[in-house]
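Incident log, structure service

09:12 report received: a user says their structure output differs between two submissions of the same chain.
09:20 pulled the input from the user's history:
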Amino acid sequence: KNSAPAIEEKSGNGSSSNVLDLFKTPGLRRGTIIMYYLFFTNSFVYYGLTLNSGKLIPGDLHVNIIVSAIFEIFANLLTIFAFIYVGRKISVFVSMMIGGLTLIIIPMVTAGIGKTILAQIGRFAITGSFSMVFVYAVEIFPTVVRNFGLGSSSTWARVGGVIAPYIGRELTRKSAEAPLI
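09:34 re-ran on a clean worker, output below:
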């Protein structure tokens, strides 16, 4: 008898579901892969910026962390309004695009204050997007596989968060702005 409750659960009607059910139908498979990508990317960028903020964002480390914390509060509040008035897909898309574009533009800016502002905007956008994907994922997965969908997506977020500081550290050895790209 298999005693792995994390992989298999019994529903009330005697049928069982597992994480492989996320890949059985084309629509659910596509949604699952997209959620894995969104969770991984958001976590990778968020923790890459947060854990390497002393090296990646110019300026005083303590001031940057305080400003980032204040921005995170506003990013999470904005997330609520974006979901209500704009919708899920567009909100996540716009947040990730703003975050990505600002981080790509940073190496082209020469002024330290400009880099700091762009980095904070990028982190603001990624913070909002990271909050959004948790809500979005719960709504994407059907009830019978929701726990597996959110749990396995969150696992990909943890993978992104674990490798982010290492990638950031190694890229920083090549160029101070390489991790931002």
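09:41 both user submissions now match this output. Likely a transient worker issue. Closing.
09:42 reviewer note: The mean pLDDT is 82. The two ends are 49 Å apart (CA to CA).
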